[in-house]
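Tutorial sheet, problem 5. The two components below are modelled jointly, 1529 residues in total.
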Amino acid sequence: MEQSNKEHRKKKESSTAKRKLHTQGHNAKAFAVSAPGRLAKTIQRTSDVNERKLHVPMVDRTPEDDPPPVIVAVVGPPGTGKSTLIKSLVRRLTKTSLSEINGPITIVSGKRRRLSILECPADDLNSMIDIAKIADLVLLMIDGNFGFEMETMEFLNLAQHHGMPRVIGIATHLDLFKSQSTLRASKKRLKHRFWTEVYPGAKLFYLSGVLNGRYPDREILNLSRFISVMKFRPLKWRNEHPYLLADRVTDITHPEVFEKQGKQVDRKVAIYGYLHGTSLPSAPGTRVHVAGVGDFSIASVEKLPDPCPTPYFQQKMDDLERERMKEEGASAALPRRRKRLDDKQKLIYAPMSDVGGVLMDKDAVYIDVGKSRDGQGPSFVAGEEKGEGEKLVTSLQAAEKSIGESFDNVGLQIFSNGQELREAPEEESEDESLNEEATPQGDEGRKFLRNPRVYGKSIQEADDEIDNLRSDDEIDEDNGSKNISSKFAEDLEGEADGKLDFETSSEFELTDDENEDTYRSTAIKLNGNGSLARKWDIGKLIYMENINPSDCIKRWRGGEEALSEGGDEEEDGDFFKKSDVSKSSSASDEDDLEKFKPHFDTFNNLVAKWNSAEGLRRRFIGAPKVSDVDQGNASGDSEGDEEEMYGDFEDLEADSGEAESQHQEDEDQVSDENESEDSFADFEEEEKTNDSTLKERDANAAKKEALRLQFEQEEGDNFNENDPDNEYDTWYELQKAKMAKQLEINNAEFASMTSEQRQKIEGFRAGSYVRVVFQAIPMEFIENFNPSFPVLLGGLLPTEVKFGIITAKVRRHRWHKKILKTNDPLVLSLGWRRFQTLPIYTTSDSRTRNRMLKYTPEHAYCTASFYGPLCSPNTTFCGVQIVANSDTSGGFRISATGIVSEIDATVEIVKKLKLVGYPYKIFRNTAFIKDMFSSAMEVARFEGAQIKTVSGIRGEIKRALSKPEGHLRATFEDKILLSDTIILRTWYPIQVKKFYNPVTSLLLENKTEWKGLRLTGKIRADLGVETPSNPDSAYKKIERVERHFNGLRVPVSVQKDLPFKSQIHQMKPQKKSTYMAKRAVVLGGEEKKARSFMQQVFTLSNAKEEKKKAKKQVERRERLKKLAQIEEDRIDKEKHRKKEYFSKHGIKRSSNQDGGNASGSKRRK
Amino acid sequence: MAPGNYVVLQGARNFRLRIVLSTLSGRPIKVEKIRSEDLNPGLRDHEVSFLRLMEAMTNGSSIEISYTGTTVIYRPGIITGGSYTHNCPAGKPVGYFVEPMLYLAPFSKKKFSILFRGITASHTDAGIEAIKWGLLPVMEKFGVRECALHTLKRGSPPLGGGEVHLIVDSLIAQPITIHALETPLISSIRGVAYSTRVSPSIVNRMVDGAKKVLKDVGCEVNITADVWRGDNSGKSPGWGLTLVAENKQGWRYFVEDIGGPGAIPEDMACGLAYQLLEEISKSSVVGRSQLPLAMVFMVIGKEDIGRLRITKDQVDERFIGLLRDIKHVFGIEAILKPVNETNSDDLILTIKGIGFTNTNKKIA
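Model answer (structure tokens):
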């Protein structure tokens, strides 16, 4: 049987991509440009797109490794599902169900990312403003079934003027649409409207329905993924200021204060939260603004352990632990290395929202014992415990003694059958007095205010402390003088060991040097030599206020004898003021410091020192070759000089034995330097040995490494803008690289510091969880505290603490109904602050003066000047007229937007002033003018001023007339008329009213009802007062009598006496009839007939036409009337239809309220 | 800010710089015990004159001087700049007033253009050349490019009669953060020898005297002779020399001196040349007189770390006093670290800027 093979199939002529290329008969790819026009377009478009991606390069100062949580604000009108969304997100990310949402909820959302989710109170404009300033990401909730609401638009506009955070729109209530087509259409409409507001292509999520009180899991998952990969650009304002969103607020006022002064006292308040933005200075007294409360100085800041660390951070900690354990050699109990987020790491921290029921404070842990949740009555009640666990807890609650106290009378038993060892009483001889004070109070607890140790001190405080220390020491010396030797002998070993600690402790800065000296002298006595001498750290010495600068230097330079002398001198100075006086009054010393010229040695010394300048040779380039012969000598010489320069130092270190080798090394080094730095090479040296070259190479490598570690100087080769050879193609890249380099340098420098030093220099970094304590916050803040309103702390820069006049470019918001009036109160949200102020709107008259405007122009920018806390130019802001909810009328509330252009202490604004006068006596070009001024003094002020008649004749004020008070003499360029009006146009300076009223909404019980200064119109309306109107200001129809000028008639009697020159020249009437008059044209018979006929015809046709026109007019009028009627009917019908529709389907609000009440969910009205 | 909330400083030391620091930081200061123990207590004429100048160049600043003049409360306003003419008192040369203006000028609202009238040289304070060749280059390194000091008339002490015009045209947001970690090599030495109302030969004698010393150094030495005659040479005879060591990076070291009565030009120039060598040996990147300017510009830089190499000799009383004042006013500390080199005991001065921006400037 024949084998049956598969039939061969011929390969089909397929139209693959490759084949397509050859359709034209040639390979299209082989010929570069097939369509040059399209290519050009493509290139243009690509570069367009690339160009659009560029932003002004800005340094991102958020720390790389442990950034603060991203603030996600959920914003939207009431009833759009904000709480539901937060609950769904929290559930999704942490598997926790929240019962109520109060304050920010911090959750871990990824390996390196945490989110602080925050709900914006729907109906509070103040909160909206605050949130717009701090939110990194805004989830803008939109009721998809209803469309955009005023709050949404307001929020978007607020956000825009505070740096525009990332915005994701979320349309909800989409399940209410019945038909798919309407849903699709309305989705599209929403999307496009959203795009015009945010940016084309902005992400809009659609959440369909609610299941089990949450949005569908899949949709939430998508959203959370979207959020967790989102990138953020640094915003200018936030990149310049530290800020904090309060997690938790506690009143830590001592109860004794309440007892003494009642509840109405300023409170000591601790505010907790993650730091954002730049680092918060660690110096106490930093000014911050608490939005809605006011400006305060920070009493103390403390970094707390992160309550919600990222897995990355935890891993780092684990790694450290592992390292440590490895070093110790214990390999068995290594913590497992985590690869991915497990449930344990999905942390949630929401102290105000009651999650998990445990609150941790600095000095206490609060456990929520639970409200009677399941109707079984309160738990954890002593005697009614429901289990072993509860019993344990209640027994703990019942403990009468603190742990410390319970050990009070217990001794230490070393052996099981031994005697208990108790405290040896004789050892407390020194601290007796202290203990005596302390012991009797042990049982009763503290009755007085705790005086906590503040980290860091203000100058005055520090000074006080120094004084106190002094006096303490005096006492100490008196008491302990008897057994001083033995005491020190005991202590010394400890001291010597703990020397390092002692040096680093901050306390040390304030210790008296006299103490030091005693230590030192005893140490010297005991050890016999000065090996214990401290090596002073200049960095610390500089800032020890109690050591004067010259002493600092002496100590640092290490002059031991000089030091003790100096110390003694200072002591004396402290004890006997008089001698100090004589010392300081030597003015020469002081003036020496004021001198610009630094101190130089005497001429002879200098000459001796610099007789040969060889020692400095290495500081010069292009030194001429002295001679080749002298080469060896030169290096030797320079070495010698160096020794001279640093002679004392080397003497100290090098003993005679080592000196030789050291010298040898030094010489090598010097020769190396000569080769590398000076541009001539020494061939003889190089040929010496192979060894030396190797050594040299090593040295060079080391040097290179050191250089690399130190980073090249920023102005080096790569970063020179003007250098065409740098490796960056564009300016943008160069700037980016520069910033990156600088950040790298910063990080490297900070990393090399001790943590204490770092905190001092850098402050509290963004991302750290801190507790900020304020000394005196108004009691209303605590009494009326409502956790659902965000509390925001914004750090203030030095300029922002000062007050002055801010000049800004301002425009009325185009959606705001009314124009704004000068000096009407306006609530501005500028910087961190919200405050009411009285702006004056001005315009610049061709840059010569700022003229006041009574109202803002309709559609243009004008300048506004107002009083308030200064804010650096280029800061954008917006203004609203009313923030109280009860006063709003439903319109768009943001009334003005603007940008600060200038800050100053004063501003010159003028108002136009026209003074009017009338002439009462006119000479040729001179006139006397009345009614313009009321006194000669006023006239004197305006002497030389330009005046003008209404008819445009210009003039000048000359002098006041002596007789009628206030009358003046003026000259004009021409003779004026008695009927003229004289106008003096002048400028009247306007002062900006110094009114600043911070919006203290958080102090109110009803936080949405902050009123402040009312608008003038509002006051009038409230009081029922009519707007006063000056009848002069009213516009009336001006009736001008046509001026009739009679011809000049000179009586004959007068005329005849006039001289010839003044004779009135008049032509005599013509006697002869003219040529034309003589020849009259008379129509002939035929022509006359024709003309009259034509006239008749025209008359007829005109009459006909007129009739036709009139008729048409009437018809037209009829038709218009008819059309109007139809239109009216249509509108009526439409109205009716709408009314019917809404009454049937119900508008959103009312239905929501019903639904809301029915479902029992939390929705604000 | 509460009215009583000011930084309290004591003593008459560093008076100008304290006022300058206060103005830059915007924090009010109270300087107490100004020569309170002196037989002639309180502020001196030139200090009051300086306060006047500050008042003129700022807007909204208030100065309260106590009855005895031993306490001054200074509340800074906004640096406005603009043009102004300042008549310096007889006791102090114009350099005393020009120097602090350099700290403020780049951060003002309007360009600085101040005409100073008075003595233009002295033994103790900054001379015109010292500012022009020594301080302005430092400013240039920090990004202040367009600043100039024009000498319209020279006026030697005691009678003076000089006129100097300070123009600072570049208004910058903040100084550039610098990293000067290497001691630059000196490429040349320049100088100006000037005289007013004396024989021009004195100038040549000075040049010769200086060159005699500096020729050993082995780099290009170029000293300009600048003889002033006629009306522009002030009211008194006088002569002086300024020596500047230059390098390619734009840093400078300088010394200056003027001839006193009976001084010999050659000797003075010779001594000054030695002083220049001394100054070079004692300074790393900037000279001792330039150090305060560089430090203040580092302090008011961006919120980045700037580094400057200094020598051990530069850590003197003035340095420490200034650092303390900076800490009081700005609340920041500097760090000194030894350089990572074996054969040098220079230090690296590390300062983190305060994140200063020139808020006075108007936006376009």
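Marking note: The CA atoms of residues 195 and 227 of chain B lie 5 Å apart. Full credit if you identified this.
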